[in-house]
């Protein structure tokens, strides 16, 4: 099959499964199938854009065939967490050496602010996006720069986790835990300033937004697939609770 046929088959099968599930009680978890299918359609492996060469797409497909299910899930639905406001309980090893990570955020720009610092883990690499209004104290403690304007991504990548500051150690511990969760392959980390051309890949991974891979949000894609929340089916009224990732 060629790429358009593969995309159409994913779309059609997802729609058929979701619509069949609408008549069954207790299938709220079915909303996550469109989420992962949408992640597939927006990924470099399947998205219908010209920025992925045939050779690169072939490499991606071959690599995907070697991944475990957990790694593949991370590739299609990365996890994003904030570093600038992580609770005190995060980044501190317990007796077994495990580190509590910040809560996962929905993969949408609505989860982000310009004064934030966000880590995105797609199972292949770790991207750390730094907003232009970030606290200079955080930038100095973690990246060794005096301000956002003086932040050099390459120097920040080399400096990360080496400052010895309590905040630096906290971020370093979070990084180690993220890598420990997915030990193979070793994930390099990259620091991206807001406005950096490289941030395109970061925002392409925010699959709950409209992206270059598919001009649909998660809620729009759910609707297109024919998903109906259980409360709506039972009460014939707008649902009181929206599925995760959806916003009124």
UniProtKB/TrEMBL annotation:
<dbReference type="GO" id="GO:0006886">
    <property type="term" value="P:intracellular protein transport"/>
</dbReference>
<dbReference type="GO" id="GO:0008270">
    <property type="term" value="F:zinc ion binding"/>
</dbReference>
<protein>
    <recommendedName>
        <fullName>Protein transport protein SEC23</fullName>
    </recommendedName>
</protein>
<feature type="domain" description="Sec23/Sec24 helical">
    <location>
        <begin position="27"/>
        <end position="72"/>
    </location>
</feature>
<feature type="domain" description="Gelsolin-like">
    <location>
        <begin position="99"/>
        <end position="152"/>
    </location>
</feature>
<dbReference type="InterPro" id="IPR036180">
    <property type="entry name" value="Gelsolin-like_dom_sf"/>
</dbReference>
<feature type="region of interest" description="Disordered">
    <location>
        <begin position="227"/>
        <end position="248"/>
    </location>
</feature>
<dbReference type="InterPro" id="IPR050550">
    <property type="entry name" value="SEC23_SEC24_subfamily"/>
</dbReference>
<dbReference type="Pfam" id="PF00626">
    <property type="entry name" value="Gelsolin"/>
</dbReference>
<dbReference type="InterPro" id="IPR006900">
    <property type="entry name" value="Sec23/24_helical_dom"/>
</dbReference>
<dbReference type="InterPro" id="IPR007123">
    <property type="entry name" value="Gelsolin-like_dom"/>
</dbReference>
<dbReference type="InterPro" id="IPR036175">
    <property type="entry name" value="Sec23/24_helical_dom_sf"/>
</dbReference>
<dbReference type="GO" id="GO:0000149">
    <property type="term" value="F:SNARE binding"/>
</dbReference>
<dbReference type="GO" id="GO:0090110">
    <property type="term" value="P:COPII-coated vesicle cargo loading"/>
</dbReference>
<dbReference type="GO" id="GO:0070971">
    <property type="term" value="C:endoplasmic reticulum exit site"/>
</dbReference>
<feature type="compositionally biased region" description="Low complexity">
    <location>
        <begin position="229"/>
        <end position="239"/>
    </location>
</feature>
<dbReference type="InterPro" id="IPR029006">
    <property type="entry name" value="ADF-H/Gelsolin-like_dom_sf"/>
</dbReference>
<dbReference type="GO" id="GO:0030127">
    <property type="term" value="C:COPII vesicle coat"/>
</dbReference>
<dbReference type="Pfam" id="PF04815">
    <property type="entry name" value="Sec23_helical"/>
</dbReference>
